[in-house]
Amino acid sequence: MQILTQARRFSDAKPWSFWALVGVAGASLFGMVAAFGTAPSSAEVAPILRPIVEELARPVIEPIDGTTDVFVREERIQRGDTVAALLSRLGADGNETLAYLRGERKAEPVFRQMSPGKTITAKVSRDGTLLSLVFPLNGGKDQALAIERDETNRYRVSEQTLPLETQVLMRSAEIRSSLFGATDAAGIPDSVAIQLADIFGGDIDFHRDLRKGDRFSVIFESISHLGKMVRTGRILAAEFVNGGRAYRAVWFDGSDGKGGYYTADGKNIRKTFLRSPLEFSRVTSGFSSGRFHPVLKEMRAHRGVDYGAPTGTRVRSTGDGVVEVAGRQGGYGNVIILRHQSQYQTVYGHLSGFAAGIRKGTRVAQGDVIGYVGATGLATGPHLHYEFRVDGVYRNPLAMVLPSAPPLAANQMGLFRERTQDVITRLDDIRTGNLALLD
Known about the structure:
Elements: E1 2-6, H1 9-13, H2 15-29, H3 42-45, E2 49-53, E3 70-76, H4 83-90, H5 94-103, H6 108-112, E4 119-125, E5 130-136, E6 143-149, E7 155-161, E8 165-174, H7 179-185, H8 190-200, E9 215-225, E10 228-242, E11 245-253, E12 259-262, E13 282-285, E14 288-292, E15 299-302, E16 305-308, E17 314-316, E18 321-328, E19 334-340, E20 344-354, E21 363-364, E22 369-373, E23 383-390, E24 393-395, H9 413-432
Antiparallel strand pairs: 1-2, 3-4, 4-5, 5-6, 6-7, 8-9, 9-10, 10-11, 11-12, 13-16, 14-15, 16-23, 17-22, 18-19, 18-21, 19-20, 20-22, 20-23, 23-24
Helix pairs in contact: 4-5
């Protein structure tokens, strides 16, 4: 290996230049921009650089359990992966292992839960025999499916609880094209992006309001097994700057056992209604007193908002309520109508189907999945028709001011300030760039 080194005499001949380079290196290391003297030009440094060739010792690989015939390997599930492809990358004999997994009922989750990003750990012999496999299960239950080969060369399948560690991570990013594009670039999991949209969805319409240059900071829990992230936990605090206006939220679990997100002064950030019934989509037709109907071929009022999305996209209840209608109704096709308190109604039309348990009289909570996008009724393609009514009067859900949930009670404010002071300080440090204080 060739290593470019600097001769010792450089530091002896030009001490001021040597310490200038040390200063610049230090500035780079700690992420600060500063000047520590005048650095020499490249022409001045070049004559005193010379190549040195060194032989590096090969790393010693320690055998597992005292033998070189057993190897532990890890692989992350890729998008579009099959069980066969995963086993091949793990170095396991796919034919034997696949035959067993397909014939074992308890091993069904291996085929049904191939979630991209999940880390699989396997112990494999030199000849490709799978000795054990640990497959984390979906659902955030901290459980894994363990497949182990016993002394009689038979496999046994069992569920095991993973030993987990919780860490607090801090990330910030800037919007260049989309929320998911920004989170991907910053190494922030999709689950955190979805939480961000849920938290700030009452103030920011993530379909229409995002602007290039918007930025956000987030402090969240990371749940790990053997140093590998298994899932994310809750967002503890976040700031989103949209169009120059900053929105902040911190998680607080009060003495009454009811947790939620609040502003720094204790106002409830949760609105009574979400701004949109879909997590992410696009508005294809807005609220209007008159538009040309694509099916009826005539001008008529459009008293709702249409969201374009693929068939099967999950539709959420925008507020706590009770199902008044869940069935087929004229031009709406499959429709759900929810009653919220006494004066509000929300309508979800053209659905392809209803979520399990959704029927007249069912109580739903804000954010619950109630149905799926479709193209039933008078629709030219898959989309959701969403209406918002106040005392029977149609209102534009994208323009109206949504009512807020109640703020913290006065007797909770002392505990709130005590429990949230640390994360609010960390948000301040992220904003001001004091990154060295965050560790």
